[in-house]
Design goal:
The complex is a heterodimer of chains A (about 300) and B (about 525). With about 300 residues, chain A is mainly α. Helices cover about 70% and strands about 0% of the residues of chain A. In chain A, helix 2 crosses helix 13 and helix 4 runs parallel beside helix 13. Helices cover about 30% and strands about 20% of the residues of chain B. The chains are: A mainly alpha (about 300), B alpha+beta (about 525).
Chain lengths: ~300, ~525
């Protein structure tokens, strides 16, 4: 009878971190093709934003009165606006504003929401009570109304717009993360850590936060699309970023409204860009949620 | 696109060409004029208000001592309204007005010099607790006298040749003296004038109705049976009201795009009247903030502007058009274009101007790419397009300008606080007259937001105001303009607003003027077929 030789663990071929990520990505693409399309579109947006000065044939801020309201042509692929500014160039540079505001507010909002949600669940008692009531107050305002009020108070620079979009996102994220963290708090390993005498900070950072990463990522991707839409809405209402900065929402207001009939390209293309970005983030976010949610993983 | 623009221009041209002939038709009696007013009146007392929301619906109920000739397109020719004639003493210190006889208030009482005196006393010497926005414009008036029932006399502290125009102010409605004596605030909530139309009703936010005054002193007028002012704030809804022929006219202005839409939709049913508008956007530069305390930097900002190219292009998309100095083009004291071109920033050779601007910035130690914030008012037309244009022009001399839009109601407090480096400022007048337009540039003026201190400007203003000879006055005004816009570049004029009134071709007898506060008595207006 042949006896199996014991395997030395060191002889096993362990894939590198990069390899593991590549494998996970390939698996994600295979199982979630729509999510992969969303991810591809997001990647495309990043490339466009990063290479804007290289791929744009025109300065997005330069006024050319001799080319006012030019319809799409070989010279100006998507036409020009009322100031003769190239619409494509402004769309390309506008992706920078969309991604900056989108990522800025979504990352800060989701991070703050996570900290508050985990803290609230971990400490419980009065801390939880007061924090949750505070969150309830914020949640009682519709997202756009709260953002409008904040930007009206703070002013309409890019950092202020990011702050105005961030604040309404925090309680929404905190609520979801708290629900996850409440179940983690009851896990034996958290009790064990507490029994071992570890401090609150270590327990939260080492044992609870890593375990709410899945809902964190889901909230983050869901917020990204919302944040881009909110930035466009604020800019459209004149409360977001200001001219002459290239921003998609901004491109939809002013002369785009005045010339909606005579020069529809001024409104159509920025509108499509907003829809494209929001759709991409939503597709990716939904697939990521499906992939990370254990209940949905087998479906 | 180009073909459509050409067609629109042709139609507008036809409409414009058709108008003078129609104006010569014999007036028809009857009908109700319906017009849109973009704003509600805050109170009924024009002496204390400054919005067209008061003038447009209510001016038909009143008369003023003098008025601007309703057929004068420049809006600068005073004619008698309640005054039949007037004389000036040799020293220019006494103006005597003879009043019309048989003029009655709508309540049946006769109008006499007592009423004119009481109204002007309220405007010029308001008692405590009474607001009079135009008190400062009459600082030369020492006393108003009523020596007999049909004579009014204004005694001045110093000669002021602009007094007749100032007395033609559309805000200076004549009220009943007895009513004012009983309750000086009565007119804030009631109407009782001598005008061609009597008051019927006002439903706030909805409409204002007036009907023909059968006892009007100017026999044969008014021609209309009545009028209805409908309050609509949305500009799209205003256009829709005219396009749907639910309103004949809106007396403020439409944008060039809205004009084109109406002309395209209604063709010959629309007549377009256009005029330079006595409104201009200025750029205030804060003289107490570096580097704008340096006149080389201020001159560079004005030299950067290609006003002629801007005029051509921006007039297609917003309410501006003419390149102008301190007076509306075409009016008596306006600087002729050839002289205007000699001022900094008004030259035809923009490359030369911008080279000079860059040299001045370098000389003043302002580095390439110097950044500052330009504060603009949160009103779409013409503030936003002009803001974009200015920033582009300044970029071309190497400045990096960020725009901050300030919400309209917070805008004036910001200017008054001086909380800006460079900011959009504006001026709108009711009559083009240097004495009314220029006091804001005096060192002591509350509206001198850039806070310049310039005794030369102050002296030139005083001299032009006291000059009795028109040519002498022009010389002082040219010197004032050169000092203000060129030598010291205290402030920067952008482009003159342009008033566009596309109205139903049925509306006759109404002539556009440079001010949307003028010509709203409606006594000369009639409705054609």
């Amino acid at each position: 009878m042949a006896v199996a030789r014991p395997v030395d663990p060191l002889e096993l071929e362990t894939p590198s971190a990069l390899g593991r990520w590549a494998a996970a990505a390939a698996e994600f693409c295979r199982q979630r093709p729509l999510g992969a399309i969303g991810a591809g579109a997001i990647l495309f947006l990043f490339v466009v934003a990063a290479l804007a000065p290289v791929i744009s044939a025109y300065d997005p801020l330069a006024v050319h009165f001799d080319a006012m309201l030019a319809r799409p042509s070989a010279l100006h692929w998507l036409g020009t606006d009322a100031f003769g500014r190239d619409v494509l160039a402004r769309l390309i540079y506008g992706s920078r504003t969309a991604l900056l505001v989108g990522f800025g507010s979504a990352i800060v909002g989701a991070a703050l929401g996570t900290i508050l949600g985990v803290g609230s669940a971990y400490f419980g008692g009065r801390v939880d009570l007061y924090l949750q009531r505070l969150m309830d107050v914020f949640l009682s305002f519709p997202l756009i109304v709260l953002a409008l009020a904040l930007v009206a108070i703070l002013g309409n620079s890019v950092p202020n717009v990011i702050a105005a979009i961030t604040v309404p996102m925090v309680p929404r994220c905190a609520l979801v993360i708290r629900a996850s963290a409440l179940s983690i708090r009851e896990m034996p390993y958290v009790d064990a850590a507490r029994a071992a005498g570890f401090g609150h900070a270590r327990i939260i950072l080492r044992h609870m936060l890593p375990n709410v990463m899945a809902p964190f990522l889901i909230m983050l991707t869901a917020f990204l699309g919302q944040a881009i839409l909110l930035e466009a809405s604020l800019s459209f209402l004149g409360l977001g970023v200001q001219e002459p900065t290239a921003a998609w929402g901004l491109m939809l207001r002013g002369a785009a409204v005045d010339f909606a009939e005579a020069a529809p390209w001024m409104a159509i293309f920025p509108g499509l860009a907003i829809s494209f970005a929001v759709f991409a983030f939503n597709l990716f976010g939904d697939s990521l949620r499906d992939a990370l949610d254990p209940k949905l993983r087998t479906q | 696109m180009r073909r459509r623009a050409a067609l629109l221009s042709l139609l507008a041209g036809l409409a414009l060409a058709a108008h003078p002939a129609e104006a010569q038709d014999k007036p028809h009696y009857g009908g109700e004029l319906v017009f849109v007013v973009p704003s509600d009146p805050p109170s009924y007392d024009a002496h204390e208000e400054e919005t067209f929301g008061v003038i447009h619906p209510m001016a038909p109920h009143y008369n003023t001592l003098l008025r601007v000739d309703p057929f004068d397109r420049t809006g600068t020719k005073p004619v008698g309204d309640l005054a039949e004639s007037w004389t000036v003493s040799r020293d220019g210190l006494v103006y005597t007005f003879k009043l019309r006889r048989g003029v009655k208030f709508h309540d049946g009482n006769e109008m006499t010099s007592k009423d004119v005196k009481a109204s002007y006393d309220k405007i010029v010497f308001p008692p405590a607790g009474v607001k009079s926005l135009r008190k400062a414009a009459y600082s030369s008036v020492e006393v108003v006298e009523a020596p007999d029932p049909y004579t009014v006399r204004f005694r001045l502290k110093w000669p002021e040749s602009s007094l007749p125009l100032n007395l033609a102010s559309p805000w200076n409605w004549i009220y009943r003296a007895d009513v004012l004596a009983k309750d000086i605030h009565w007119y804030e909530t009631h109407v009782n004038g001598t005008g061609p139309f009597t008051f019927v009703e006002h439903v706030r936010g909805s409409h204002w109705v007036g009907k023909k005054n059968p006892n009007y002193w100017d026999k044969g007028k008014p021609y209309l049976d009545g009028y209805r002012a409908i309050f609509i704030s949305s500009s799209a809804a205003q256009v829709a009201a005219v396009r749907g022929e639910r309103a004949h006219i809106q007396f403020r202005s439409f944008s060039p795009v809205e004009r084109d839409q109406l002309v395209q939709a209604l063709g010959p049913k629309i007549t377009v009247q256009e005029s330079p508008w006595d409104c201009v956007l200025l750029v205030a530069m804060h003289h107490e903030k570096k580097p704008f305390d340096d006149k080389r930097v201020r001159r560079a900002l004005t030299l950067a502007l290609d006003r002629y190219e801007g005029s051509k292009a921006l007039s297609r998309i917003t309410l501006v058009k003419d390149v102008a100095g301190i007076q509306v083009p075409g009016t008596p004291y306006a600087t002729p274009p050839t002289e205007l071109e000699k001022l900094a920033g008004y030259g035809r050779d923009i490359n030369r101007s911008r080279t000079e601007a860059k040299r001045l910035l370098k000389e003043a130690g302002v580095p390439e790419g110097f950044a500052f914030t330009f504060k603009n008012r949160g009103i779409p037309h013409p503030y936003e397009p002009l803001g974009i244009w200015l920033i582009d022009q300044w970029r071309q001399i190497g400045l990096n300008v960020k725009q901050e839009i300030i919400e309209a109601s917070a805008y004036h407090p910001m200017l008054k606080r001086g909380d800006f480096e460079v900011a959009m400022d504006f001026q709108c007048g009711f009559i083009v007259e240097p004495d009314l337009d220029l006091p804001r540039f005096l060192s002591t003026s509350d509206a001198n937001y850039g806070k310049h201190k310039d005794t030369v400007i102050d002296e030139l203003y005083e001299k032009q105001g006291r000059a009795t000879d028109a040519e002498e006055r022009k010389r002082y005004l040219r010197a004032f303009e050169k000092r203000l816009l060129d030598e010291e570049a205290h402030i920067l004029y952008t482009l003159q607003w342009h008033r566009i009134i596309p109205h139903s071709s049925k509306v006759r007898g109404w002539t556009i003027t440079p001010s949307h506060y003028l010509n709203n008595q409606l006594d000369t207006v009639w409705l054609g077929e």
